[in-house]
């Protein structure tokens, strides 16, 4: 009489091997009789994945053989720390069966599941896919030479000769699960929430989608009299003729000031910021931010908001296209190209403030 749970396990194991680019871990090889006598024989042996690895050298997910599943389960319950085993001992040990984590199995399933593969092909190169890539996590070196905080970041690095450089991780959508409104004024109203979700996903903004259109092209003109109001909000987010851009800028400054104060800093904003030699002012000044042998120095920065797409370009064919490069592989980004709103805004702000402020 068959056992349904075991039959199901066997069927799922077979599906993973046949449909989801998985492979079974090889059986353990008997240890060599001596370390030095079989060097030539071991030279041609196929390299084995390191003990505890979930992936093969060719990128396939390693699964324990079903007849060794009990060994992997027992080993996961009681496993010695890697630090207690020397590298020589790890090299001499045969590869051990490892049960992949649920997260790793889920990643493998979503990567090779036929409906997901069809969706990725369907939306390749579309606005949906571009928006998804814009919001993927990123990793950057903490001590990049072009950083405005490179001096401070270098001071935070470990001073040991063999110390590894720190990485900074940024997840654009992580704030949704960490920041909550403290007052009723901080909460999103329904219309603003609809706009945020729509623009994040690459959908038409409901308020703009209700405007007149002809053959799916917008008819309503912006107050600037130069462009029509596109349904995705690209022109609305980039037009400087209306007061919305100034209001968004001032609102951001009003939020960042108290945020730095909660960290114990003395903060000045806008008209309270110390004027530079050229009588220009940044938006926010963190007083006595850096203290070293040269004395105390303040950090002044200027806030600029730039949309990630063209929306008010005189080259009409550019409007709606990305003005920044999206991520090309996991944890990395392509360099920001020149001649786009984001880099132009950064260059202008840095040029105005760096030259005129004295340190």
Give me the secondary-structure topology.
Blueprint: H1 4-19, E1 22-24, H2 39-43, E2 61-63, H3 69-77, H4 87-92, H5 102-112, H6 114-122, H7 127-134, E3 138-141, H8 150-156, E4 167-170, H9 190-201, H10 206-209, E5 213-214, E6 217-218, H11 234-238, H12 244-261, E7 266-269, E8 284-292, E9 295-301, H13 341-356
Parallel strand pairs: 1-2
Antiparallel strand pairs: 3-4, 5-6, 7-8, 8-9
Your description of this structure?
The protein is of the alpha+beta class. The chain is 35% helix and 11% strand. The chain has helices at residues 4-19, 39-43, 69-77, 87-92, 102-112, 114-122, 127-134, 150-156, 190-201, 206-209, 234-238, 244-261, 341-356, and strands at residues 22-24, 61-63, 138-141, 167-170, 213-214, 217-218, 266-269, 284-292, 295-301. The strands form four sheets. A three-stranded antiparallel sheet has the order 7-8-9, with helices on one face. A two-stranded parallel sheet has the order 1-2. Strands 3-4 form a two-stranded antiparallel ribbon. The chain is extended. It starts with a helix and ends with a helix.
């Amino acid at each position: 009489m068959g056992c349904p749970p075991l039959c199901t396990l066997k069927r799922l194991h077979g599906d993973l091997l046949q449909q989801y680019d998985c492979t079974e871990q090889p059986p353990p090889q008997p240890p060599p009789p001596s370390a030095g006598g079989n060097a030539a024989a071991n030279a041609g042996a196929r390299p084995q994945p390191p003990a505890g690895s979930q992936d093969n050298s060719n990128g396939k997910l390693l699964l324990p053989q079903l007849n060794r599943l009990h060994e992997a389960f027992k080993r996961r319950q009681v496993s010695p720390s890697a630090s207690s085993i020397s590298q020589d001992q790890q090299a001499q040990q045969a590869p051990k069966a490892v049960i992949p984590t649920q997260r790793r199995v889920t990643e493998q399933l979503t990567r090779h599941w036929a409906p997901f593969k069809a969706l990725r092909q369907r939306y390749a190169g579309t606005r949906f896919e571009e928006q998804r890539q814009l919001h993927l996590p990123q990793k950057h070196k903490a001590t990049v030479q072009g950083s405005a905080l490179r001096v401070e970041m270098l001071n935070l690095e470990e001073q040991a000769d063999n110390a590894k450089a720190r990485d900074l991780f940024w997840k654009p959508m992580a704030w949704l699960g960490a920041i909550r409104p403290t007052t009723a004024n901080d909460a999103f109203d329904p219309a603003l929430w609809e706009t945020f979700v729509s623009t994040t996903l690459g959908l038409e903004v409901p308020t703009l989608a209700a405007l007149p259109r002809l053959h799916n092209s917008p008819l309503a003109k912006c107050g600037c009299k130069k462009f029509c109001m596109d349904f995705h909000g690209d022109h609305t987010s980039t037009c400087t003729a209306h007061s919305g851009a100034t209001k968004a800028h001032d609102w951001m400054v009003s939020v960042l000031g108290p945020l730095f104060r909660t960290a114990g800093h003395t903060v000045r904003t806008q008209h309270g910021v110390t004027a530079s030699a050229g009588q220009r002012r940044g938006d926010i000044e963190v007083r006595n931010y850096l203290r070293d042998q040269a004395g105390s120095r303040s950090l002044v920065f200027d806030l600029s908001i730039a949309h990630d797409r063209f929306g008010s370009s005189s080259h009409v064919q550019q409007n709606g296209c990305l003005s920044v490069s999206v991520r090309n592989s996991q944890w990395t980004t392509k360099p920001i190209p020149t001649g786009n709103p984001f880099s132009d805004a950064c260059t202008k702000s840095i040029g105005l403030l760096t030259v005129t402020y004295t340190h």
